Structure formats: structure tokens, C-alpha cells
Inverse folding.
């Protein structure tokens, strides 16, 4: 145990002092802050609801319809968009209006022309963040044109009102998946992949650097190779867990103090209600198991090289396995499908860390599936660790011609 503590402390201190750790942490925290801040810039669905009265005071709209294709269109716009200033424009001044738009974001131009015997509405704004939504404008003018046409055909006001009536509606889901669980699940899957890949690579880099600099020879005097392997894997896992916890904690703070209360997407409030104590502990467990699986593989790759320049080539097989497993789990989770392929992704030790956390947040994983998945992962990790320790112990002090893995495994220590 003392040997493991010695290697753990040395590796942990070395990892947290590196610029890569500090820079990557700062960048991730900044991205979380930016994502949270965007909810202050872009209104939620609730704020964009048609039943919500939006004040357009201070906004000006140039309306161009020289052929009077939509009668009383300006009255309809003024009624539905209170506070807006409507100015009748001309085709000749359209170029001047475009120039004004680049300087004034409160301006909007609506041009109505004829196409295929129907009015064609073009909305010109300064940029995509314009408060005067093109969808809202087109909806207002479309309804007004329909009302005019029905009136000309002899329908009374009651029939026209019924034709344009929007029925009361609600959106419900039979399943447990919602926009919050889906978005957070996808982001969490990516974060877990980044942590597992980055810190698994960190184990390989640490082992390779110490071996090529002959520091490993000093370490071997103080600790057995198997203890070195365990200590390094635990240390890099602790560093990854530290960063992982910092990001999730900072995200929780941003959600509480930056994201507006009641913010919604696709008609559903954005919440972290799926993060129960049980789901949080299981997600943490899968992160640790996934990291352990890839860390022992990467440590063997790091011990197998004689020059640091050969490390990327040595870990290429593990990198390909991790990337393919990530996409296998990610696609199975993101599509929301249930079937044989999804079951395989959940049970396969290499891909389960990238799909189970998503499933947990969306309530689509049973206790039986969890039991099978965790049992397979732990069993696979134990077997793989045993094999890796034998290969690592034989290769960590091996210099010269590169040996095959099966030869290293059979080497008597």
C-alpha cells in the first residue's frame, strides 16, 4: 500500500501542475459559462409564445407592397405587434434600406412581391438576432391574406374567424425523455469520453516519459511494477475526477445563478430533475469503470515504447477502440432507439460508459440491464488488469527491439 501511495502522490502532483491540466480546465469552464449566458441572450420558448404580448416600441418596419397584394396588411401588423412603427416603403429605396439595416438593428424591411399568383413575403433584418421574427411576420401576413381571400369569396366573419382559429393544444410525452435529459445526457457523454480519453492518454504519456528518461528505473527500486501501474492509474483517475467534479459543480452554479428561472426549450422547462442521488452515483461509477478500463490499456502502450515519439503509434489501437466505442454508444443513445444494437452497446464494456449515463438521465435503463452491464465491466477490468500487469511488468524495463505482447505476457518475472 505504501508503494502505491508513493507512486500516486508523485504522479498526481506532477499532473495537476502541468499547463495542459490548467488550460483545459479553464477552457471547459469558460464554455460552460458561455452556454449558460446564451440563455440570457436568446429568449426561451415561453417568452416566444404567441400568447405573450411583446412590446415592439422603438422598432421600425419598412413595408413594401406596391401592388397591394395583401390588403390592410399594415393594420394587421400594428395590431399583432404593438409599439412597432410601420413606414410604407418603395422598391426604388430598397438598396438604401439595406444600408440602413447594417447600422441600425431596430430596423426591418418587409417586401411583398408576386410569385406563382400568390404573395411572396421577404423579410430583411440586420442579423439572425433580430427581435422581429420572420416567422411571426409571415404568420401575421398569411392569416391576413387568407382572411381577405375568404371574405372576397363570400364567407361571413364567423366563417373567416373559424378558418383562422388556432385550437388549444398541449405537448405530452409517453416516455421519460425530455429536452433537458437529452441535452444534458449528450453533453455528459461527451465530457465522459473526453475525460476517459484524455486521462487514459495521460497514463500512457506518464509511463512512457518516465521509461524513456530512465526515471522508471528509480521507481522500480522503490516499488514493484504492478504497484506502479496501479498507483499511476489511480493518480490520473483522481486528477480526472477532480476536473470532472469541478466542471459539474461550476455548471450547477451557472444553472442556479445565470440561467433564467423557467427557461424552456421546445415547450419544456430546462431542469436538472433527472440528476437524482442514485443516477449521480451510477454515472460516477461508470466514469470510474470506463476510465479504469482504458487506463490499464494505455499504461501497457506507454510501457511498450522506447522513445516518446513512438507513443502515438503505440496507443493507436486503443484510440481507435475508444473512438469507435464512443460513436457506437453515442449514436445508440442520441437516436433514442431500443433494440439489439442498443443492448449490445449497453453491455459491451468498451461502449457502456458512453451510453449508460445518457440512459440514466432519461429513465430508459432497467435494473437488470444495469446489473449485467456493471458485472461485465468489472469482470472485464479484473481480467484485463491481470493481463496488463504481467505485460507491463515485463515491458517497463525492456529496452531495445520491440517484443510482441504475447511474448511479454509469457515472460517469467
Amino acid at each position: 500500500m505504501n508503494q502505491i501511495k508513493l507512486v500516486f502522490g508523485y504522479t498526481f502532483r506532477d499532473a495537476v501542475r502541468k499547463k495542459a491540466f490548467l488550460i483545459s480546465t479553464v477552457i471547459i469552464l469558460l464554455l460552460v459559462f458561455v452556454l449558460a449566458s446564451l440563455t440570457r441572450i436568446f429568449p426561451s420558448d415561453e417568452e416566444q409564445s404567441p400568447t405573450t404580448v411583446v412590446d415592439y416600441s422603438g422598432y421600425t418596419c419598412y413595408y413594401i407592397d406596391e401592388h397591394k397584394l395583401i390588403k390592410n396588411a399594415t393594420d394587421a401588423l400594428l395590431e399583432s405587434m404593438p409599439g412597432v412603427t410601420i413606414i410604407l416603403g418603395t422598391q426604388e429605396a430598397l438598396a438604401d434600406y439595406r444600408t440602413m439595416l447594417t447600422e441600425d438593428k431596430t430596423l426591418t424591411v418587409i417586401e411583398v412581391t408576386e410569385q406563382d399568383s400568390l404573395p411572396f413575403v421577404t423579410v430583411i433584418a440586420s442579423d439572425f438576432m433580430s427581435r422581429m421574427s420572420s416567422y411571426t411576420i409571415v404568420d401575421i401576413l398569411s392569416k391576413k391574406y387568407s382572411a381577405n381571400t375568404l371574405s372576397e369569396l363570400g364567407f361571413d366573419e364567423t366563417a373567416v374567424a373559424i378558418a383562422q382559429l388556432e385550437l388549444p393544444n398541449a405537448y405530452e410525452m409517453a416516455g421519460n425523455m425530455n429536452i433537458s435529459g437529452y441535452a444534458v445526457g449528450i453533453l455528459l457523454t461527451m465530457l465522459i469520453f473526453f475525460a476517459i480519453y484524455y486521462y487514459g492518454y495521460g497514463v500512457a504519456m506518464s509511463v512512457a516519459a518516465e521509461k524513456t528518461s530512465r526515471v522508471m528505473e528509480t521507481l522500480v527500486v522503490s516499488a514493484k511494477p504492478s504497484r506502479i501501474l496501479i498507483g499511476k492509474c489511480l493518480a490520473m483517475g483522481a486528477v480526472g475526477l477532480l476536473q470532472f467534479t469541478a466542471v459539474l459543480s461550476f455548471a450547477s452554479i451557472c444553472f442556479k445563478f445565470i440561467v433564467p428561472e423557467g427557461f424552456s426549450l421546445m415547450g419544456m422547462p430546462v431542469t436538472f430533475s433527472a440528476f437524482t442521488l442514485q443516477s449521480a452515483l451510477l454515472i460516477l461509477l461508470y466514469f470510474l469503470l470506463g476510465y479504469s478500463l482504458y487506463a490499464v490499456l494505455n499504461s501497457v502502450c506507454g510501457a511498450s515504447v522506447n522513445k516518446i515519439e513512438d507513443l502515438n503509434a503505440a496507443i493507436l489501437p486503443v484510440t481507435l477502440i475508444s473512438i469507435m466505442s464512443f460513436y457506437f454508444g453515442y449514436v445508440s443513445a442520441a437516436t433514442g432507439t431500443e433494440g439489439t444494437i442498443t443492448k449490445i452497446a449497453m453491455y459491451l464494456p468498451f461502449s457502456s460508459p458512453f451510453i449508460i449515463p445518457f440512459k440514466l438521465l432519461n429513465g430508459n435503463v432497467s435494473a437488470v440491464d444495469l446489473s449485467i452491464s456493471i458485472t461485465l465491466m468489472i469482470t472485464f477490468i479484473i481480467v484485463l488488469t491481470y493481463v496488463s500487469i504481467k505485460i507491463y511488468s515485463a515491458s517497463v524495463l525492456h529496452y531495445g527491439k520491440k517484443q510482441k505482447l504475447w511474448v511479454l505476457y509469457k515472460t517469467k518475472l
